[in-house]
Design a protein that fits this description.
The protein has 16 helices and eleven strands. By secondary structure, the chain is α/β, with parallel strands linked by helices. Helix 12 links the parallel strand 10 and strand 11.
């Protein structure tokens, strides 16, 4: 059946596993110019639906190179549809010490490399993710198109005349594996070395992860549980320090959000964290509790600016939402302007 649509907007298949805040931003952006179809691929029904839809779209856009997307990416490749895959985390990681990453185990590595081989363009969210994509996923450098994540000061920033408190904050989420990888368990351990300092661990974890954090933490830790975006901004606006000694980090969204409130970051040098933090914060090895505690104390008495730029200025100038939006739209326009995209589309099954 022929496509009789009068709307000239191109159609993009945007399969979803979960929609975090940064994925939602890209969804909203692409919807401003293209027609998006967003099947839920967490179930086999959703995956089969996405396969049926491939023939009727102009391109496929995958946030993360999840193996769940492999069948539809292969189908799109067979139909010569442009495929964009955003790389930035588990999909290109290989951290054998904690068993983290799609590229750790032989079988998932082979399948993951096949997925990235099918992609027309791979969009890493950081230089660290780009290096992992090449080294672990076998992506040719010429196929990479680096577009860092972006943040909107108008949405995230609060007035800077608010007094900072001697407070250390961090965000927790996920399961036992997540709190170890993100260094949140280390935050709880560090709190016992700094009994005179108030800590806040906010965010929703599963029951086992929360129980583990409470077991590790000192009595000086307040657990806030789930908090709204407004409450998160308010917490960061009050806290002097944001602590996140990750073992692996594809970008570090929570760190950047805290920096927008001029929290001084204390982090490890894992993954993309040095790209995000630069000279505006303090570093210590993720496994060295004593070093982390020393750096937290140093940050608590430090001036707001440790270098020529404040934490907020660094995020505003280097990771602006407007820059990511412009680059991502430009990339998709180029991809969709290819001759293959102008060919008549077969109707979806």
């Amino acid at each position: 059946m022929a496509d009789h649509r009068t709307n000239a907007r191109k159609r993009i298949l945007f399969p979803c596993l979960h929609v975090s805040s940064f994925i939602q931003k890209d969804l909203d952006l692409l919807r401003s110019e293209f027609d998006l179809i967003t099947p839920d691929c967490r179930t086999w029904t959703g995956m089969l639906s996405s396969l049926r839809l491939v023939a009727g779209v102009d391109a496929v856009f995958c946030w993360f190179g999840s193996l769940r997307f492999l069948p539809l990416v292969v189908a799109a490749r067979a139909l010569r549809k442009p495929i964009v895959v955003v790389a930035g985390g588990y999909d290109v990681a290989s951290v054998p010490a904690i068993g983290y990453g799609n590229m750790v185990h032989f079988r998932s590595r082979i399948l993951g490399r096949w997925l990235f081989r099918c992609a027309s363009q791979v969009v890493p969210v950081s230089n660290s993710a780009a290096r992992e994509a090449v080294a672990n996923a076998g992506v040719p450098p010429e196929k990479l198109h680096l577009i860092p994540l972006g943040f909107d000061f108008r949405e995230e920033g609060l007035p800077l005349d608010r007094p900072k408190q001697p407070l250390v904050a961090t965000l927790a989420f996920g399961n036992l594996s997540s709190i170890e990888r993100k260094g949140i368990a280390q935050v709880a351990r560090v709190s016992r070395l700094l009994p005179d300092i108030q800590f806040v661990i906010a965010g929703r974890c599963d029951a086992a992860a929360e129980a583990r954090l409470r077991e590790l933490a000192g009595p000086n830790v307040e657990f806030r549980g789930w908090i709204s975006d407004a409450e998160r901004r308010e917490l960061f606006a009050r806290a002097k320090v944001y602590l996140q000694p990750s073992i692996h980090e594809g970008f570090g969204c929570a760190v950047a959000e805290a920096m927008l409130q001029n929290c001084i970051p204390v982090v490890s040098n894992a993954g993309a964290l040095p790209e995000v933090v630069g000279q505006t914060g303090y570093y210590a090895p993720a496994e060295d509790l004593d070093a982390l505690a020393r750096q937290v104390r140093a940050a608590l008495v430090a001036p707001p600016c440790l270098s020529s730029e404040s934490p907020r200025t660094r995020i505003e100038t280097r990771f602006a939402a407007a820059d990511r939006n412009r680059q991502l739209l430009d990339l998709m326009r180029v991809m969709l302007a290819s001759p293959a995209c102008d060919a008549p589309r077969a109707a979806a099954a």
